[in-house]
Fold:
Amino acid sequence: MIVTDSLECDRKIGVWMYQNSGGPEIEQKMILKLLERGINSVTRLDLRFAVGEKEGIFCKGINMNELDAFFSYNAGEQTVAQVYMYQVLSEFIPTLNNFKSFTVSEDKFLTNMILAKAGVPTSDFYLCHKEDTKLLAKQFEAWQKMVYKPVDGWGGNGMALIENHATLDTLLPFINKSDSRNVYVERFIKNDYSDFRVDIVDGEFVACYGRRANGRDWRTNITSGGSVILREANDEIVDLAKRAAMAIGLEIAGVDILYDQEKEEYIVLEVNGIPAFATPAQEAMGLDFNDRKIDLIVNMIDRITKK
Structure:
């Protein structure tokens, strides 16, 4: 944990940053830039170790209720207990992302409902009770090809491509044994098996890159075998990403966009509340947006915490 109380600062924020893939270096850059604004940082505030008392929520000796803000950026270690503390803390101090929008981004069905209402193009989607297998089969007949997704999954985990009735019949017992009451599916988007990931911070465009499936899988997710590729975003893609981030209400967003070859339009596939910085290996291949992203986050924290 890094605390820099020896320096003259009139504000203090808490930070929970991932500690792999270049995270410590990014954290250090952010801390130094915040110090230049008179903002002290307390790092490694993992809410797993937090306790609640009448006086506040304490983590590693710090009363987090007395902080000016909390920056949470660790997708890989979120647990139910940590998210609960995140929710409670957000009632007392600003959190980044704000908790309400963060929870929306964690729910694919709710995200797409909000995007659709805001007029942001998305995939066609459908949700029904998991016991309504006839409704699910009827939807498959309408689409002929669809993707099953856990509403709260990430990284492509738990997803399944349904191309025929045999696959659907095989999947149903798995769905029935799951904890989820509902089953969520999306129409399969005919595409070139690559996507655009657009980072947005505080309403500003940060960068764009892409992911490409490995040829053995239809998913572009890195955890599913996809690879990062360099690609540029046109004005339409940037505008779409900004609209998606604004509709969900995220201060920091990573918007995944596909080109629908059948409808001949770009659509938002997913909105992520904790989009990764470029790893050292990705920086070496030409992804150089980390400094701009840090600057925009620091500017936002500075504005939000000004007294």
